[in-house]
Amino acid sequence: MAIPHARPGQPVSIHSDPLSLPQTTTLIKTESIEVIRVVMSKGKELARHKVRGEITLQCLAGSVTLRLGDDDCELYLGC
What we know:
Elements: E1 25-29, E2 34-37, E3 63-68, E4 71-76
Antiparallel strand pairs: 1-2, 3-4
């Protein structure tokens, strides 16, 4: 399934509606950067994967544990 992309000029909320289903949306995609908003339900896991280049993660609500090799890193709102 393809990730939906925001159209140019389309306002997109980065906050989750607690009644909506989790949805992944590409907010910006150019030749040099891609910004993706990922919403996950509590207890769900994202399969291990790699990306080309650098990655920046920000937790906007709740918390998430990242597994980086043998190390775990917890991100949470206010981190």
